[in-house]
Amino acid sequence: xxxxxxxxxxxxxxxxxxxxxxxxxxxxxxxxxxxxxxxxxxxxxxxxxxxxxxxxxxxxxxxxxxxxxxxxxxxxxxxxxxxxxxxxxxxxxxxxxxxxxxxxxxxxxxxxxxxxxxxx
Length: 120
Fold this sequence. Notes:
By secondary structure, the chain is mainly alpha-helical. The chain has helices at 2-19, 25-43, 62-83, 89-111.
């Protein structure tokens, strides 16, 4: 997925500004400037954690970062479930992760008084 993403960023920085003209071309310039400054965070799949500026390069790539991070961290959850499935330790590890991943959003929502389904 990195090579297609790199090609899209290259297009956004190199070719897309040449196509921009008209009253809304400032938005293309903002996109181009953000991609010139923050391309590395998108290619390293850390753009959902790194606070580089107010705007990210290609904002929709936050999902690629989340997906890649979950792909890397999934074996930490799946291996114990597979390895210790006979004595139910894997089920306990899975349950602990589920409680953690459910409790943290609930706790943050309660602490900051956020409404359900709050989007940043």
